[in-house]
From TrEMBL:
Top-tier EC class: transferase
Name by which UniProt lists this protein: N-succinylornithine carbamoyltransferase
Pathway: Amino-acid biosynthesis; L-arginine biosynthesis
UniProt domain Aspartate/ornithine carbamoyltransferase Asp/Orn-binding: residue ranges: 184-309
Species the sequence originates in: Larkinella bovis
Binding site for carbamoyl phosphate: S47, L48, R49, T50, W75, R110, H147, P148, L149, Q150, C272, L273, R300
Gene: argF'
A single GO molecular function term of this UniProt record: N-acetylornithine carbamoyltransferase activity
Length: 315
């Protein structure tokens, strides 16, 4: 693996899932592989899981880790080419990425969607600028349109907990008062489209994801109908793609409750976290044995380790 930015960087998903499961069984088997190698973790946005699990995975592989929060620890970075830099950004990504690439053997970047300009967000400017100028492999820690380390952890979790060979997996929109990115939902859909699952997306009118991410999924606008017989309920809020970045409704009837979970076939509840309790999903669901959110977050370590191993092997 050279870069890990989209699903297209994966050559064999089953093998990558197996790598994650192997790492979970034997975390320190590849300690020698990352010796004297350094990963830079660059954050333009907040993080708990991605930051800690990626650092842990790198350390399990014997790597050194340098973490930086852009705009707090470092200078603000200009992304646009050819501009007069007379604003609040003191450094251009051309120099910054190139310099980081000198200190690090690979660079991992988190840069969320701005949710103001759809074309700009969907061009993945920040990730692509790092790819262009860092001169080392780039790993996506959640970009404007995708969160592939999350999706790999989700695949691992579904593999571990499925009770039938072709489970029914439902990605459902949840209510939230803030506009959130589509990245987690896009990515989950992209990856589920490559799995042997019955995949359904449930969202209110006006919240359909971009067609290239929906793929062959069945989209329904009735949550109860989607939940019937489901094995996995994957909850996430996202702002509208059509009316880009807008909150069109906060309809609380889309919150996941135990009554909703009873429509499933003893289904499991998944969410990437952080989750706002009793707004997106009730305490009762999150605190029940049907919730997999902690196991899912734990699998972020093994997902990151599988990917970093693949990149190290290709250096
Ligand atoms: N990395 C996991 C999700 C990150 C982000 N959530 C958030 O920003 C939640 C913020 C809040 O609930 O205030 C998102 O939806 O893409
Ligand atoms: N799920 C996830 O990416 O969590 P963080 O935003 O805390 O990293």
């Amino acid at each position: 693996m050279t870069h890990f930015v989209t699903y297209d960087d994966v050559t064999d998903l089953n093998a990558l899932i197996q790598e994650g499961l192997n790492a979970k069984q034997n975390p320190f088997a590849d300690q020698a592989l990352g010796r004297n190698k350094t990963i830079g973790l660059i954050f333009f946005n907040s993080s708990l899981r991605t930051r800690m699990s990626t650092q842990k995975a790198a350390q399990n592989l014997g790597m050194n880790v340098i973490t930086m929060n852009v705009g707090q620890d470092s200078w603000g970075l200009e992304m646009e080419e050819g501009v007069i830099m007379n604003g609040d950004k003191a450094e251009h990504v051309k120099e910054a990425a190139a310099v980081v690439g000198k200190y690090c053997d690979m660079v991992a970047v988190r840069a969320f969607a701005g949710l103001k300009n759809r074309e700009q967000d969907y061009q993945e400017v920040v990730l692509n600028q790092f790819r262009k100028y860092a001169g080392v492999p780039v790993i996506n820690l959640e970009s404007a349109t995708r969160h592939p380390l999350q999706s790999l952890a989700d695949c691992i979790t579904i593999e571990e907990f499925k009770v039938r060979s072709r489970p029914k997996v439902v990605l459902t929109w949840l209510p939230h008062f803030k506009p959130l990115p589509q990245a987690v939902a896009n990515s989950f859909s992209e990856w589920m489209n490559h799995r042997d699952v019955e995949f359904v997306i449930a969202n209110p009118d006006g919240y359909d994801l971009a067609p290239e991410f929906v793929g062959k999924a069945r989209v329904v606008h009735n949550q109860d109908e989607a939940f019937e017989g489901a094995d996995f309920i994957y909850g996430k809020n996202w702002s509208s793609y059509e009316q880009y970045g807008q909150v069109l409704t906060q309809d609380s009837s889309w919150m996941v409750t135990m009554d909703k979970m009873r429509l499933t076939d003893n289904g499991k509840f998944m969410h990437c976290l952080p989750v706002r309790r009793n707004m997106k999903v009730t305490d009762e669901v999150l605190d029940s044995p049907q919730s997999l959110v902690i196991e899912q977050a734990a699998n972020r370590e093994w997902s990151a380790q599988a990917v970093l191993k693949g990149v190290l092997q290709n250096l």
